[in-house]
C-alpha cells in the first residue's frame, strides 16, 4: 500500500532534519532551527504524525555498551517460494528480538536479516534454533560485521 508523498517546504525540511538529529529539542529550539514560529512547529509536527511521515520517536542506544558484541547480516533462502512460506517466515521474524531489520531481497537469497546478539554462543543458538529450524528456511549464510563504518537513521532531506 503506497502512501501519498507529502510536499515539504524548505522550513519543513529544516524542521524534519532537526528532529532527525535530536528529537528531544524543545519547540523553541526547533522553531529557531526551522525558521518557524513555535505554534507552526507544533502544528507541522502534529500534521506529520497524523499523515504518517513521523512514524514514532525513539532513543538510539549504543549496542556495545549494552552488551551486544556480535552483529551479523544473515542471508536466508526459502525452501520453496510460496505465499504461505513467505507469510509464515515474515510473521515469525517479527517475534525475534535479535532481528533488528528484515528485508525481502532479490538475488540468490530471499531475505537479509540484521541480527544483534551478545556473543558467538548466542548467535550459534539463534541461528540453529530460531532460523534454520523454521520449516520455510532452506539455508542461511552469515556475514559478520567487523566494524560499523556508517550508521544513520536520518533521511537525506537536503
How much helicity do the residues have?
Answer: 25-40%
The rough form would be described as elongated
Count of discrete structural domains: 2
CATH class type of the largest domain: Alpha Beta
Radius of gyration: 20 Å
Number of strand elements: 4
- Average pLDDT works out at 96
Indicate the CATH architecture of the largest domain.
2-Layer Sandwich
Regions with little confidence, pLDDT below 50 for 5+ residues: none
CATH topological fold name of the largest domain: Alpha-Beta Plaits
Topology:
Blueprint: H1 10-21, H2 27-34, H3 38-51, E1 70-78, H4 83-94, E2 99-104, E3 111-117, H5 120-131, E4 137-144
Antiparallel strand pairs: 1-3, 1-4, 2-3
Helix pairs in contact: 1-2, 2-3
